[in-house]
Amino acid sequence: MSSRPPRPTDSEVPRPRDPVGSSAAEALWKTATGFLRGPLAQQVQQLYLVPCFPDAGHLVRNRRVYIKNMMAYVPDYDLGAVICGLLRAAMNASFELLEGRQHTLQNTVFSDPRVGKLLSAAPTVYLGRDFNKAAVKSTEERLMPQSIKQVYKDSFPPCMRRLYESYMAEHHLRHGGRMQLWLFFKGAGMTLEENLQFNRQIWREPQKFDKE
After folding, report:
1. Listed residue (86, 63, 88) closest to 74, CA to CA
2. Closest Cα partner for 50 from 28, 27, 82, 26?
3. Which of 21, 54, 112, 153 has the smallest number of Cβ neighbours within 10 A?
4. Would you state the pLDDT for residue 19?
5. Residue ranges per structural domain of the chain
């Protein structure tokens, strides 16, 4: 494992609104932001200290950050790129680990009822348009109220499955969750009338459903 430089303390991180008397912080802020160009350069509100390598390597390579003591002073608008890079590296490491442990992959990951079937089918899934079929979905191809209980465990994505299970248990959903689930039903082919009828049946107090 490669060693990383020690993390600087909070006092070493320059901020745009440090006390007026903090001349050292002001000087460091100007140095770390003075070379930035473009409209975003005027919008920097915070700098984040990130190890130059590997975390901020792409920013260092493109000369987008100030470097001091092997730490990159990353503007807030570039922090998302650093986080995405860390996530990508973690996922690649996980895939490499699983590639050498097929037994674990088969017995743990693929047997998980939440994602097992989805991952097993992923290599053969075709997401493009099927020009051999009509544009209008038949009743067998679209989601219908009477078929939800039979298909939700295997066909719903994990987030929608949990939302639906919570809905069935509580007979109520907050507005945000309700909108997500309704839009999912719509995308799966359920008509507006079917959607409304289905939700009225589940609602704790059906007479109040239309008001909410």
Report:
1. 63
2. 82
3. 21
4. 40
5. 1-119, 145-209
